[in-house]
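During the no-cost extension, the postdoctoral fellow (Dr. R.K.) reprocessed legacy sequence entries with the updated structure-token encoder. One reprocessed record is reproduced below for audit purposes.
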Amino acid sequence: MNALPIAAVVLVLSPGFAFGQVAADAVPAPLAASSGGYIRNIAAFLEQCPDRDPAYAQIMRDFEVRRNDKKTAEPVCTEPITAMTTAQYTDELIARQGLRVMYYMDRGQSGHLPWTPGTLYDWMKSKIQGIDIIDGVVGGYCCATLDGKLFFVAGNEDGPNRDADRFWYGISGNIAFYAHEARHVDGFPHSSCCGIANGCDDVFDPKNLSAYAVQWWLYSLWLNGTINVGDSCALPADRYAQGLLNSMNEQFRNRFCTNKPDLVSLPAVPEGACPPQDRRRSAKK
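Re-encoded structure tokens follow.
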């Protein structure tokens, strides 16, 4: 495994929100491919297994998921995902679920990401060809070359973090972490200017976003509803808007030493309005 010199250890912690489970018989069809293939209700979407998604084969062609540098068997998944045990909800399955959310979350959008003209998914597949889950690594780093493909490395997660990844607050943190690591491919190393060894970025520049700035930017788009995955359809206690705000102001903002982003407040409509819901059932394999 050949690590690039821009390698950086990054740990993205998921806030400990207590989200309720979604009853299987109350789950609306979360994905309406006939309406452009976007996510209407993220809680319902995350109850579905990745391998039952019509885009799954394409996603697996675009990104390979490995464990300790080795190819692995297709992970077993049963629905609803919140009914799976912690041991069953593996790192390999979580990675596939995160890629699946990324595929749909800003589908058809353009101009919302300063570092690319299109979607996050399309940009990321132009930089990275896979995720290598390495046991014992804390956080992750970019990058490793395996069989001629460029992978970023992600550490294995403990039980509480895998449980968190059943829900939007966990998966969103993973997606932002994926984007952070992929941004290193564009030549954005870290510094230690904020007092964290190799865990800081020198400047927040909206016209030339660094790795931590990419994370901050994604959280901003989720918070203001520019990227709307239907988290606002949940009960108020189960929405992640406050967590997004806290991460921006208390976590990512402090990773910059010059020109820190301004403190932000909750927008008038946090995470955007609840999209129209389609109650038709999704087809199952």
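Residues 29-258 form one domain. Residues 193 and 200 are 6 Å apart (CA to CA). The remaining legacy entries will be reprocessed before the final report is submitted.
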